[in-house]
């Protein structure tokens, strides 16, 4: 045990504790400033990540599409309910086909986050957008993509690609295959689309 005078000397004074906290805070602020100046891409990536997660959470809290609530991906074209029609290898059609001239701009039917811009065997060039309620909006057989990349935010009406015949539609009249997936299962998109 320390004698009384040494015990008082060993105990830091209030001034020393405040000074210690201020020095630590100043060092932390300086480190953050240096990181922000020397590595701006890290802060930009962090900001982008936070915004993306916020958008995802916001979308999941919104209501799923309802009957006649979505604009057509090809507004001037006639809509026909081709859901469930027979397809090769015993498959049934899990969407609708909307025919238009090759290169016609395809518009997003919803706001959301671009999940995929790429290719698959059946759909050829495809775009997938996750919209309100977590519904997946699938656009296939594109001729080409618009200037979009995964994790981009799109609004309803934004151009996401152009009508074509890629994938297993090669040689058929140009069209976009449009599908909606709710909880991972395909649902008929026709009732959700506004008819002109």
TrEMBL record:
InterPro entries registered for this protein in UniProt: Cell_wall_metabolism_enzyme, Dup_hybrid_motif, M23ase_b-sheet_dom
Which UniProt keywords are present, listed alphabetically? Membrane, Transmembrane, Transmembrane helix
Record's superkingdom?
A: Bacteria
Pfam families the record matches: Peptidase_M23 (PF01551)
Its transmembrane ranges are 21-39
Question: CDD domains in the record, alphabetically?
Answer: M23_peptidase
GO molecular-function term, one example from the UniProt record: metalloendopeptidase activity
Q: Which residues form the M23ase beta-sheet core domain?
A: 92-189
User: What name does the UniProt record give this protein?
Assistant: Peptidase M23-like protein
Q: Which organism is it from?
A: Psychrobacter fozii
């Amino acid at each position: 045990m320390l004698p009384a005078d040494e015990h008082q000397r060993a105990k830091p004074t209030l001034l020393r504790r405040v000074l210690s906290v201020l020095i630590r805070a100043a060092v932390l602020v300086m480190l953050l400033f240096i990181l922000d100046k020397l590595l701006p891409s890290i802060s930009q990536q962090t900001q982008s990540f936070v915004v993306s997660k916020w958008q995802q959470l916001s979308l999941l809290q919104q209501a799923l599409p309802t009957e006649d609530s979505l604009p057509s991906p090809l507004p001037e074209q006639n809509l026909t309910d081709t859901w469930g029609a027979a397809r090769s290898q015993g498959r049934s059609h899990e969407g609708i086909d909307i025919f238009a001239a090759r290169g016609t701009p395809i518009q997003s039917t919803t706001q959301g986050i671009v999940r995929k811009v790429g290719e698959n065997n059946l759909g050829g060039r495809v775009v997938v957008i996750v919209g309100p309620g977590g519904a997946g909006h699938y656009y296939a057989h594109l001729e080409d993509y618009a200037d979009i990349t995964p994790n981009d935010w799109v609004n309803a009406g934004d151009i996401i690609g152009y009508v074509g015949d890629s994938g297993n539609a090669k040689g058929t009249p140009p069209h976009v295959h449009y599908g909606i997936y709710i909880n991972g299962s395909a649902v008929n998109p026709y009732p959700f689309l506004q008819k002109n």
